[in-house]
Write a structure and sequence with these properties.
Elements (H helix, E strand, L loop, with lengths): L2 H19 L3 H13 L8 H5 L20 H12 L11 H4 L24 H11 L3
Helix pairs in contact: 2-4, 2-6
Length: 135
C-alpha cells in the first residue's frame, strides 16, 4: 500500500472518529434512542434484534418490564451508535444507510426489513439530523 493511500485511510478513520466524538448525547437520548424502541408496522422494534447483538449496532438489553434504558445504558448505546456515523460522508453512515430502503439510497439487505421507506420518514430524519449536527 502506498503512503498516500495509507494517509487517506488514516484520515478517513480519524474524521469518522472525530465526528462520532462530537455528537450530542442529550439529542441522541431525546430524539434518536426512542426510534430504536418504536414499533413500526410490519417490523420488529430495533431493540428486539439489536439488544445484545453481535454486530456493530449493539443495543443494551432492556431490563425486564422496562420501557426505556437507564442513563448508563443509554450512554453505552450512544457510544455504539456514534461509531456508525460517518460525519464526512453522512450517507455512508451505517446507522442511516442500513435500515433505509434501497431505492431511497439504502443498503441492498437488512434482515430486519426496510424500517424507513424514504429519507422523508420522520424517524429517519431524526437520526440524520442528529448525525448531521456532528461538529
Amino acid at each position: 500500500m502506498t503512503t498516500p493511500t495509507r494517509l487517506a485511510m488514516v484520515t478517513a478513520v480519524l474524521a469518522s472518529f472525530a465526528g462520532a466524538q462530537s455528537l450530542d448525547f442529550a439529542t441522541y437520548r431525546a430524539k434518536v434512542e426512542p426510534v430504536f424502541l418504536k414499533k413500526r408496522e410490519g417490523h420488529a422494534r430495533c431493540v428486539v434484534c439489536h439488544a445484545g447483538a453481535g454486530n456493530a449496532f449493539r443495543l443494551q438489553p432492556l431490563a425486564p418490564g422496562a420501557t426505556t434504558w437507564t442513563e448508563e445504558q443509554s450512554k453505552q448505546n450512544f457510544d455504539a451508535v456514534s461509531k456508525l456515523v460517518r460525519a464526512a460522508n453522512l450517507m455512508s453512515s451505517p446507522i442511516l444507510k442500513h435500515p433505509l430502503a434501497e431505492e431511497a439510497g439504502g443498503d441492498i439487505f437488512h434482515s430486519g426489513g426496510r424500517q424507513f421507506l424514504s429519507q422523508n420518514d420522520p424517524d429517519w430524519k431524526a437520526i440524520a439530523d442528529w448525525a448531521r449536527a456532528a461538529k
